[in-house]
Amino acid sequence: MISATTLSPPPTHLPSLPQTPPLSLIKTCKSMAQLKQIHSQTICTGLISNPIVPAQIIAFCCKHELGDMEYARMVFDTMPGPNHFVWNNMIKGYSRVGCPNSAVSMYCEMLERGVMPDEYTYPFLLKRFTRDTAVKCGRELHDHIVKLGFSSNVFVQNALIHLYSLSGEVSVARGVFDRSSKGDVVTWNVMISGYNRSKQFDESMKLFDEMERMRVLPSSITLVSVLSACSKLKDLNVGKRVHRYVKDLKIEPVRVLENALIDMYAACGDMDTALGIFDNMKSRDVISWTAIVTGFTNLGQVGLARNYFDKMPERDFVSWTAMIDGYLQVNRFKEVLSLFREMQAANIKPDEFTMVSILTACAHLGALELGEWIKAYIDKNEIKIDSFVGNALIDMYFNCGNVEKAIRIFNAMPHRDKISWTAVIFGLAINGYGEEALDMFSQMLKASITPDEVTCIGVLCACTHSGMVDKGKKFFARMTTQHGIEPNVAHYGCMVDLLGRAGHLKEAHEVIKNMPVKPNSIVWGSLLGACRVHRDEEMAEMAAQQILELEPENGAVYVLLCNIYAACNRWEKLHEVRKLMMDRGIKKTPGCSLIEMNGSVHEFVAGDQVHPQSKEIYSKLDEMSVDLKFAGYSPDTSEVFLDIGEEEKESAVYRHSEKLAIAFGLISSGPGVTIRIVKNLRMCVDCHYVAKLVSKVYNREVIVRDRTRFHHFRHGSCSCKDYW
DNA sequence: ATAGGGTTAG
C-alpha cells in the first residue's frame, strides 16, 4: 500500500514539474522516488485522468531495473479499463522480477475481464517460467496461442520452444522448431540451448552444422551455447571451428564468449590456449577464474588449480565447490574437508553439489561425525535430497559402517535409481550382510530397475564376503543369459576372489586360465590374497610372478609374498624376497589407521609418537595388554616377516596403528560409544584378535574398515566370521 | 507505445 509520505510534495532540488509534459519526464526518470514525485504531480494537476499517464507509470515500474511491482499494481488497480498494453506490461513486470506465477495470475485476470491477449503477451508471460510453471501451464497456453492464431509469430514460436525445453519436453520443442520458418537466429539459439539443457549435446552440434548449411549466420549467443556443448563433449575440433568463426566474423569477443572459449579449451585439456585467452581479457569475472581452476583440476593438477583459486579476487560457491571437487578427484580427502571448513569460515553457502563432494570425502575417510553433521545441515537448510545427494549419503553411511542409517536414507528416497540400488547392495555386502544384499538385488529386479556391470560386481561381492560360493557361481553363470551383461575382467576377478577365499584355489586358477579376457594384476592379486589366507606358497609364487610381470613396481605383492613365507615358516625364501625388495628399492606401504573423534580425523602409523596424547595412548595400551591377557590373549605374530626375535615381533604387532587408534578411541570417548577406525591395508590377525577381545572386555562396539571390507566387532566376535 | 536467445561444478 502507498503511504501518505510517498505522496508528499517533491524536495526542492528537483525541477518543478507542472510546466514539463509528464510523459517525457517519465522517459528520463531514473528512480522510483522520482517516479513517485511525477505521479503525485499528475494527481495534483489532474493529468492522471489521461489513461496514457498511468500506463506510462506502470510501464516504468514493469521495465525499469529498480521498478517496484507493488507500486505498479497499486496504480493498475486505479485504472478503470486497462488496455492490453497495460496488461502486457504488468505481465512483463512480474516475469522480470521472477514471479511467473503472478504473471500467470495476471494473464488469467486479463482473460476473465474479457481483454484479448495479443502476440506480445506470450513472450512476456513465458520469459521467466520455471520448470514447474512450464509443466503446469505449458500445454494450455500453447492451446490458447493456436486458437488465437499467434502460432506463426516468430517471437511466440521462440517462446514456445523455450517453454517446452524448460518442461523437459525437448522433442515437442523440436516439433515447434521444425514447423517454424528457421530464418531467425534466435529460433536456432533457443533450440540449441534447449538441447544443452537436456544434455543432448550432440543434437546441439547437429543443429549448428545445419545452421551453417542453411546459411543462418550464428550470433555470439549461438557460439556460446555451441562452445558449452563442445566443452561437455570435449570436442576440440568443433570448438576450434567456433573460435575461428569468432575471429573471421569479427564477432566482438565479449566476456561471456571469452569465458565460454576458456571453458571449452580447459575442458579439452588445452590449458595453454585457455590461459592465453584468460591473460588477454580486459576484465575477468568469477566464471573466467573458475573455468581455469576446473581446467587444472580436470587434469589432476590441483596445485596449479589452487594457485589460481588463491589468486581469485572473489569466489562464489561454484568456485569453492570446483576446488573442493578437485581435491576429491585426486583422493586428497583431508584437503577436501579443510577447504570446506575454509568455505564455511568465508561464509559461502554450500549447495547440493558441494554436499556430494564432502559426503564422498567423509565416506573415504570414514568420518561419520562430519557426515552426520552434513546430513543435519542438509535437513536444516532444506537442501533437496536429489538422487546425487541421496546416493552420496547412502555411500557415506555404509562406508562409515552405519548400515541402519544408510538403509533409512535409501527407504526415504522418492526416486531410487540404479546407482542407489547398487550402492545399497555393495554397502550391505562389505558390511557382512550378504543375504540381505542378495535380497535387495531381487527387490531391485522386482522394481524393474535394470542392473548394470557395477551392480553385478556388487552381487558377486556379497557372495564373496559371506562365503556363498554356490549362489555366486549360479549368478555368474546367469549374468549373460538373464541380465544381458557380458562378464568383464572385474567380474572374473570377483569369481577368483569368491572361489579363492573359500579355499577352492585350483578352481580359482582354472577361472583365470579359461577367461576370455587377459587377466590383469587385480585378478592375479585376488588369487594371491587367497593363497595367503590358505597358506599355499606354491600357487602364491606363481601368482606373484604373474603380477610382477605386469607391474614390476607393485610393492604390495612382495609384502604379501613375505607374509605367506613367514606364515609357512619358509625363512630362506623370505630372505630372498626381502633382499630383492632392498635391491629394487621397494618399500612397504606403511599401515595407517584413521579415527574420527569430535569432528576431526586423527591419523596413526605403527609406533606413532607424534600424537599430542601419545603418552596417554601408550599407557592405555599397556593397561589393555594386561586386561586382554587376563581374558586369554596371547600375541599372534605368525604374519610378522621381519627378521627379528619373538619378543621383538610381539612388540612390533603391539604397536600396530589400529591398536593405537583403538587405545585413543577408548580414552577419548565415553563408555558404550562405538569406536570406528579406517585402515588403509588389510588388518593383521593379531589386531583382529585384539579388536574382538576389546569388544568383549570393554563392552565396546569396534568397527574397522580395511581395504576391502568392514569388521564389526561385537561381544567378542566379528561380522566377517574370521573370513577375510 | 510493448518482443526473444548465452557461460562455471556432481
From TrEMBL:
Gene3D superfamilies: Tetratricopeptide repeat domain (1.25.40.10). Residues 632-724 form the DYW domain. GO terms for biological process: RNA modification. It holds the Pfam family E_motif. SUPFAM superfamilies: TPR-like. PPR repeats lie at residues 83-117, 184-218, 316-350, 386-416, 417-451. Keywords: Repeat. One of its GO terms (molecular function) is RNA binding. It comes from the Eukaryota. InterPro entries: DYW_dom, E2_motif, E_motif, PPR_At4g14850-like_plant, PPR_rpt, TPR-like_helical_dom_sf. NCBIfam families: PPR. Belongs to the PPR family. PCMP-H subfamily. This is DYW domain-containing protein. It comes from Vitis vinifera (Grape). The lineage of its organism: Eukaryota, Viridiplantae, Streptophyta, Embryophyta, Tracheophyta.
